Amino acid sequence: MAHGQRVLGRGPAGRGRLDDARQLLAAIVRANHDAAAPFPEFLHADAGVPARSAPAPGRCRAALVEAALGGRRLLGTVRPPEPAAALLDALLSGLRPALAQERVVVTVAGETGSGKTTLAAALAARLSAGGKRVRTLHQDDYYHLPPAENARRRREDPAWRGTQEVDLPRLEADLAAFQQSGEGDVLLIEGTFVTLLAGADARVFLAATYRDTEEARRRRGREPLDAHLAEVLAAEHALVREHRGRADWVIEADGSLVRGGGS
């Protein structure tokens, strides 16, 4: 497996994500067809248009997706800025004792939009450049339900929101399998609730809340800032803020790094 490669979760949620991804990419192809976007032929087949090969310079694919889906926007498409080099240096220095182990598991947790995936990717790139064999797991691949079905369940049943949405025991089992396999040096696991994983060697927590990231999400305009979303994010915040005390290292909303209560 390539360094930092995203792993598609097994089971019905994983299959649903694969179907959703094909539909989403097909929507991009349909919307971008006139600009001749370079996508694989099977996606053009899904979209019902002939394959093209020339690139589409200057086109915003997020906007194309939104147009193709009839104006509906997608939760979770906001990409936070890349972590500063100084922050990465400081974090890697803090993680050095854990990274000295033969095989290490590092979790990266925080609220929606806090920068978990971006930070995990940056850490994977730096560790890989330093010669480490890195794997990455994403909590998003371990939801019990496919995304659309999970979103409906959240809306219809507020009690569903939270850790019960995620197959944390299966994620814990994959963590244990990594530790026993000898395949790879570092396993990065990113997600909202991954601080709860008992088998982690080091835990990083991003402290930015949904309130801190609201303006950035509003400027990007890629998700509906409606009452339902606000309710979901507030419920998530109430759960996740308690996880800070378990973290070894905390990245504050201003980008500063502080030692956490789990150290």
Principal-axis shape equals: globular
Work out the oligomeric state of the chains in this entry. single chain
Radius of gyration using CA atoms only = 19 Å
Number of helices: 10
- Which strands sit side by side, in order, in the main sheet? 2-3-1-4-5-6
**Helical proportion, percent range:** 40-55%
- Alpha-beta content class: alpha/beta
Instruction: Give a quick account of the main beta sheet: strands, pairing sense, barrel closure.
Output: 6 strands, mixed
Approximately what portion of the residues adopt beta-strand conformation? 5-15%
From the N-terminal CA to the C-terminal CA, the straight-line distance is 31 Å
**DSSP strand tally:** 6
Mean pLDDT: 77
- Low-confidence parts: 1-10, 31-78
H and E string: HHHHHEHEHHEEHHEE
Explained architecture:
The protein is an alpha/beta fold. It has 10 helices and 6 strands; from the N terminus they run αααααβαβααββααββ. A 6-stranded mixed β-sheet has the order 2-3-1-4-5-6, sandwiched between helices. A hairpin with a 5-residue loop joins strand 5 (249-251) and strand 6 (257-259). Helix 1 packs across helix 2 and helix 1 (11-32) packs across helix 3 (61-68). The longest helix is centred in the first third of the chain and has 22 residues, at 11-32. The radius of gyration is 19 Å and the shape is globular. The model is unreliable at 1-10 and 31-78 (pLDDT under 50).
